[in-house]
Amino acid sequence: MKTGGQLIVEALEAQGVERLFCVPGESFLAVLDALHDSSIRTVVTRHESGAAMMAEAQGKLTGRPGVCFVTRGPGATNASAGVHVAQQDSTPMVLFIGQIERGMRGRDAFQEVDYTRMFGGMAKWVAEIDSADRVPEMISRAFHTAMSGRPGPVVLALPEDMLVETADIPVARRAEPVESAPTAAQVAEFERLLAGAKRPLVIAGGSRWSPEAVASLRGFAERFDLPVAVTFRRQMLFDHAHPNYAGDIGLGINPKLVGLVKDSDLILLLGGRFSEVPSQSYELLGIPEAGKTLIHVHPGAEELGRVYRPDLAVNATPGAFLDAVAGLSALPAPAWDGQAEAAHAAYLAWSEPPTAIPGAVQMGSVMAWLRDTLPDDAVLTNGAGNYATWVHRFWRFARFGTQLAPVCGSMGYGLPAAISAKLAHPERDVLCFAGDGCFQMTGLEFGTAVQEGAAVIVLVVDNGMYGTIRMHQEREYPGRVSGTALRNPDFAAFARAYGGHGETVERTEEFAPAFQRAKASGLPAILHIKLDPEALTPSRTLSEIRASGRPR
């Protein structure tokens, strides 16, 4: 006989879980006790949002659900930030929430929340394990649900009295995601549509990718000489140095790439949804008729035809689709010959860092040095803010599994994600970019990095404001600054206070030696980069944005 807490830990071990992230709570003490004797590493975080984002990042890196435990009520509401990231980013994740005792339901007991109602529109499945003998069944279903189709978060509530209830029930075997593949007729129709195109474009995005699928995409693009673009914050899906790479379709998009999408007569949308950000507020394609031949390949059948009506809808994972078309013969003289080369040249020109922005720190030079110095397996993470443009536009991703960034645009994501990545890959360089506002959303997780020995390097790009909002404010209400200024601490001293390495960078020439010392320290590190407030974007100053704003 085992307790519900022991059965849960046993089930997680059977699913291959190596680490989980949590803020401890009295509502799941029985699980914490069972973890004492488990091989699963328990990473204790400072806030539930950080724990949930670490779990989400784990899911992004592995394709298997990241696991998070939080307590009821406030713990669950705090963790909802990470659940939202997992939902919008199509990431497998399982959130376990301690719950009130079963006999207290419906009385508005201490910290009671109806999690079905709270997470019902955000998670793929929300349930309560009401009996210890159902633990293996429910956790097996949770892992299957989180991984299959369009991946996403699952939420399971754990009544406190259920966790000490005993049962004798065998553990369920490891869950594997359901694979879906195209039919022979769909492959033949794809071949026909591609052969008839004059200006085709591949747009890769979404999840359910693997290193093998990314390699297959590269081979497919080479065989047919197709230009390949990637969607917002999915840049690790194609090597940016490859001659077929056309750029990323996201915020601050290259105008020439916008032209490439508009001028194309066939789009192969592979794995993604082409939602608001990559579609440029749903302006690049018509709805529901795209205005051009659209081939949509997606692992979630519910996403096919949801917004855009495809000429060919294929319910398949990216890898399965690419395997199915691998046998197609290259066209002898495609009508689009040379288009990929031109698209790549436009990308290279767009991604060259600027040589002069206001202030003593030139972020263009910083990015150029990092590009020349870091290995291609370095993992880069970020949250949300104008500072992220320096990563998305000027870093050239080369390998799968090297980017962790929230498609949903959640601030505070970069540091938790970096910690998760460093724990998963301690041998690799992990670099977190964060704005001063973004960092302070989850900055206390730096203590988690120190406690866990996760030697991440955090670049806090400090311009003393919520930069993105200030940019919009100056454009819409020029000169009327309200609610966007920040008075910040000494971030380098903050790092040292936790026992990490901290330095301040106030001039460009200080960055490289400071970075090298941070790496040599072997400690979690913060480099506090003082950026001139005028350097609001890589191409336009704050004053220029204000001058061109629309007074009301």
Label this structure with key terms.
single chain, alpha/beta, Rossmann fold, six-stranded parallel β-sheet, 20 helices, 17% strand, globular
Folded structure, characterized:
The protein has 552 residues and is of the alpha/beta class. It has three domains: 2-167, Rossmann fold, CATH 3.40.50; 184-348, TPP-binding domain (Rossmann fold, 3-Layer(aba) Sandwich), CATH 3.40.50; 352-547, 3-Layer(aba) Sandwich (Rossmann fold). 36% of the residues lie in helices and 17% in strands. Strands 3-2-4-5-7-6 form a six-stranded parallel β-sheet, sandwiched between helices. The chain has a six-stranded parallel β-sheet with strand order 11-10-9-12-13-14, sandwiched between helices. The termini are far apart. The model has no long low-confidence stretch (mean pLDDT 96).
Structural class: alpha/beta
- The main sheet orders its strands as 3-2-4-5-7-6
Task: Give the oligomeric state.
Answer: single chain
Superfamily (CATH H level) name of the largest domain: Thiamin diphosphate (ThDP)-binding fold, Pyr/PP domains
The percent range for strand residues is 15-25%
Characterize the biggest β-sheet: 6 strands, parallel
Mean pLDDT: 96
Q: Name the CATH class of the largest domain.
A: Alpha Beta
How many E strands? 20
